[in-house]
Amino acid sequence: MISKEEILQLAGMCKLKLSDEEIEIFGAMFSNVLEQVKGLDMVNTEGIKPLYFLNSANKSLREDVAGDSLDREEVLKNAPEEEYGYFKLKKVMD
Questions:
Q1: In whole numbers, what is the pLDDT of the chain averaged over residues?
Q2: Which of 61, 62, 82, 57 has its CA nearest to residue 72?
Q3: Is the model more confident about 60 or about 26?
Q4: Percent of the chain having pLDDT more than 90?
Q5: Which residues contact 18 (CB under 8 A, 6 or more apart)?
Q6: Which residue ranges form the domains of the chain, and what is each CATH number?
Q7: What is the mean pLDDT of residues 51-64?
Q8: Cα separation of 9 and 2, whole Å?
Q9: Of 18, 41, 62, 94, which is the most buried if we count CB atoms within 10 A?
Q10: How crowded is the C-beta side of 15, counted as CA atoms within 13 Å?
Q11: Main-chain phi, psi angles of 31, to 5 degrees
Q12: 53 pLDDT exceeds 80?
């Protein structure tokens, strides 16, 4: 099972504040996911080539074509904060 300290570490990296109840809920959920992933160790993959695309014959990529831009004032009118004509965001890295 994942420890409370590990959950708090993950929450801290994600800038989340979790209650004690949420820590218990997420702990059970994470432990369940880890158990399911651990079950993949039993699958014999010897001789199987890695899969990079689900269907390598049909890679639907479109041509990159420049189009009309959105009006800056229209885009920023609902922004919580803007500065110098750009979205102002909170610092995400310490």
A1: 88
A2: 82
A3: 26
A4: 59
A5: 7, 8, 11, 26
A6: 1-43 (1.10.20.60)
A7: 73
A8: 11
A9: 18
A10: 5
A11: -60, -40
A12: no
